[in-house]
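USER: Please consider what follows.
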Amino acid sequence: MPTLSFSSAWSITAAVNPPRAVYLDFPLGHTAGKPEAPDTNRAILDAALDAFTNMRTPGAIVRLPFEWADDDAWKDSVMRPKASGGAHADDRVERWSTPQYQTDEDRQRVAAAPDCPTCVFLE
C-alpha cells in the first residue's frame, strides 16, 4: 500500500528517506495546519493528496504552498536556543533521566514486560 509522510522537519525527513513525503514549514506537530482552521486543514490535505497522486520519484519530498504566518517571526518562539547563552529562555517542561509514567498501571505493565520492543531504550 503506498504511503505518504507529512513533515515539518525537512532535514529529518530527508535523512529518513520515506518513499514519499510532503513538507510544510509549520511548527512541529502542526502538519495539518492550525487548530480550528478546517478550511485550511482541508486545503492542506487536498494539496497533499494531489502531490501524492503525482509523485513518481522514490524519496521525493514536495513542499506544500502554505505559510504558517505572514513572516518567520513565529520561529523565534518555537526554535528556542538553549537557555545558557541563547536569546530565548528554554521554557520546555523539565526533562527526566528516568521514565515518567502517567499511571501506576503503566509502570506495572512495563515492569511485567521487560523485553517490550517499545521499551528498549529504557534502562
Remarks:
- The radius of gyration is 19 Å.
- Strands lie at 5-7, 20-23, 60-63.
